[in-house]
Design brief:
The protein has 28 helices and 2 strands. The chain has helices at about 1-10, 20-25, 40-45, 90, 100-110, 120-140, 150-160, 160-180, 190-195, 200-225, 235-245, 255-265, 270-285, 290-305, 315-320, 355-405, 410-420, 430-450, 455-465, 470-485, 500-505, 510-515, 550-560, 570-585, 590-605, 610-615, 645-650, 655-670; strands at about 65, 70-75. GO terms for molecular function: chromatin binding.
Length: about 675
């Protein structure tokens, strides 16, 4: 059996001659090339096989290697070779041969070692290098390597590491900021696509369309990530949006970027991302010359305010104060960058022109001048129309807030009305003044309620919920500013009595002088009241940050120094009553506030010297009765009949030398009769 198997494997019959094979006896030995060596091979094959024991090291199948030092080392086997036990059939000479497919699979598994896993730090370093290479390639040749933008998007979508995702977002923002052109790209029409163009034009079109497509995908990604407030990628996405709005506001998909900013402002949590979005919008309003982008952003903000029922942070409404509403652009060139007039060419250097060329040159100059003028007119008209629509939307929002009396937005609304008062149409004056008067009446009712409420904590809660006294001062400033700014344009329509606002200002002077927070604002550092269970809370605001003494001085300024002519002349009794009560209030004020109020009294004495002269000179007093310091109507206090400003005699002995000096100036201005 073994001989048959051996002869079947080696096929020695092909080496034997047919004649010798036929004549040779059966027991004769076969020969190959005349040598009898066939039996030797048979004997070797019949020897027993040596099996591998458990303690034996596996024989290495790898070739030796040569080290850099020149030594030759044998490489040991890393894994023991798997040997299956021989079956009884092998002893009998029968071998089960494996199929070639199974053998090749086993060889491939043995040939391919397991790849070591990379650490996260190494992956981040490699990602930085890859992103830097892609960014450099795109910046160098954007029209050739614009296809790499899609590779960045795929990298962001397939990557699981947060750091690499952040780097990808920032890299894309930087690339778009650098390669975006200075014009908007419109989509091509069917006719333009079918038209045959030069290779350069086709190349530019492909780049532009691919750029717009990649930019749109990137903005969609930023929008999705920015809505996930708890995600680590959200601040990075907001930062990228702010960068694009600051650098490329003229490019496509500006509305999508502004929408992302406005959506972030609708969140009540004021964090770093919120502040960044707000500052970006304010800077965008200040830099927008055409007014188109400002109109889009204002409409989005108003729509968001309505959806949130005006329950947003006050600083969102304060962004309207950065708008360039109907203001002429008084931009003057500096001495370094101004266009210097060109020097005239000398006669000898001029080229001779024929009559026909001279005529064509003159006609071209006229056409160029007309085209430049036409472009300027169109730009001015477009800006005027956009800013008019923006102003209309802003004032409608202000009126709605005044009507609904939203407590968190009243300060910002009154600030806006005071700033844009010169732009309001006279037809709205009656409605605005009625709303302002209601606010002042609410402040008066709140003051009466504080006197009646015995519980101090309840009174403090009323004051913290809504600072009505401050709102009332803003109402006074807004009301007088409305008429003062429109007095020159509409003299017959501003004869409106504003004595109600003046009377309230007179009544609140003593309360303001006793206020412990008269010099404190949202940016002031101050300690809490030790006698109070809760700290004194001053609402933080970027615009509504003036102190109470500043608001008082602004109110006095608009009442006595900037009052419109149509409101009539201020009576002597009113001026004298204010002078007396301001002198009383100056005794209670801190040093800085006292100096500021005495300066206002000095200016009042200079302007109305004849009306206040009887208060400083007793010989000029005419009338009977006594002065009533507690009545809140200035005309009924009888200040001219039985009072004198003896407070300045006390201020002359004040510990502060500046107050003593300022008080002497007040006495000098009051005693000088003009």
């Amino acid at each position: 059996m073994a001989g048959a198997t051996a002869s079947r494997k080696r096929k020695v019959s092909q080496f034997l001659n047919d004649s010798d094979k036929a004549s040779a006896p059966r027991h004769a030995k076969a020969t190959i090339n005349g040598k009898v060596d066939w039996d030797e091979e048979q004997d070797y094959e019949r020897l027993a096989r040596r099996r591998q024991r458990k303690g034996d090291k596996p024989e290495s199948q790898r070739l030796p290697i040569k080290t850099p030092e020149g030594r030759i080392l044998a490489v040991e086997a890393t894994e023991p070779e798997r040997q299956e036990p021989e079956s009884d059939d092998e002893d009998n000479g029968i071998h089960d041969e494996e199929s070639p497919e199974e053998a090749s699979d086993d060889e491939m598994q043995e040939a391919e070692p397991a790849k070591p896993k990379k650490s996260e730090r190494q992956r981040i370093v490699e990602a930085k290098e890859e992103l830097a290479t892609i960014a450099s390639s795109i910046n160098e040749e954007p029209e050739e390597n614009y296809h790499l933008l899609r590779k960045l998007q795929e990298l962001f979508g397939s990557e699981s590491n947060i750091t690499i995702k952040k780097l990808t977002l920032i890299t894309q923002a930087t690339i778009f900021r650098d390669i975006i052109p200075g014009y908007r790209i419109r989509p091509l029409t069917a006719e333009e696509q079918a038209m045959k163009v030069a290779s350069d034009v086709r190349k530019l079109r492909n780049f532009e369309q691919s750029l717009v497509s990649s930019y749109k995908s990137y903005i969609d990604t930023l929008g999705k990530v920015s809505r996930q407030i708890g995600n680590q990628l959200c601040p990075v996405a907001i930062s990228c949006v702010c960068t694009l709005v600051d650098t490329v506001p003229h490019f496509n998909f500006r509305q999508e970027l502004l929408k992302i900013l406005v959506e972030r402002l609708s969140v009540r949590v004021v964090d770093e991302a919120f502040v960044k979005c707000r500052n970006t919008l304010e800077e965008f309003f200040r830099q927008d010359e055409s007014g188109t982008g400002s109109l889009e952003a204002v409409r989005m903000i108003i729509k968001m305010l309505k959806a949130k029922d005006y329950q947003v942070d006050e600083s969102v409404l304060n962004t309207f104060l950065s708008l360039r509403l109907l203001a002429e652009l008084n931009v003057k060139a500096s001495y370094d960058t101004i266009d210097q007039p060109g020097q005239k060419m000398k006669k000898k250097d001029r080229l001779p022109f024929t009559k026909k060329e001279k005529k064509a040159y003159k006609e071209k100059k006229v056409v160029d001048a007309q085209m430049k003028e036409a472009d300027a007119v169109v730009e001015y008209e477009e800006r005027d129309r956009n800013q008019s629509e923006t102003l209309k939307a802003v004032f409608l929002t202000y009126f709605r807030i005044l009507k609904e009396k939203k407590p968190t937005l009243m300060g910002a609304t009154l600030e806006g009305l005071a700033k844009f008062a010169h732009l309001i149409n006279v037809e709205f004056f009656s409605d605005i003044l009625a709303a302002l008067r209601e606010l002042v009446e609410d402040a008066q009712a709140d003051a009466d309620a504080e006197e009646e409420v015995a519980d101090e904590e309840a009174a403090e809660s009323l004051q913290r919920e809504r600072n009505l006294r401050r709102e009332a001062l803003l109402c006074i400033v807004s009301a007088f500013s409305l008429l003062a700014d429109q007095a020159n344009e509409a003299k017959g329509l501003v004869n409106i009595d504003l004595s109600f606002f003046t009377t309230y200002l007179y009544s609140v002077l003593l309360l303001l002088s006793l206020s412990p927070t008269i010099e404190l604002s949202s940016k002031s550092l101050h300690l809490a009241d030790p006698s109070s269970s809760e700290p004194v809370e001053i609402p933080s605001s970027k615009v509504n940050k003036a102190t109470e003494i500043e608001m008082l001085l602004r109110s006095l300024d608009v009442v006595f120094f900037k009052a419109p002519r149509g409101t009539g002349e201020i009576s002597s009794a009113r001026v004298a009553a204010f002078t007396k009560r301001l002198s009383i209030a100056a005794l209670q004020l801190p040093e800085k506030s006292c100096i500021a109020l005495l300066t206002s009294l000095q200016n009042l004495g200079k302007k109305h010297s004849r009306k206040v002269h009887p208060l400083f000179v007793s010989d000029d007093m005419v009338g009977d009765g006594t002065y009533d310091p507690f009545i809140d109507t200035p005309e009924l206090s009888n200040a001219l009949a039985g009072s004198a400003v003896f407070e300045h005699a006390l201020l002359a002995n004040h510990y502060s030398p500046k107050i003593r000096e300022q008080s002497k100036l007040v006495l000098k201005s009051g005693t000088s009769n003009r």
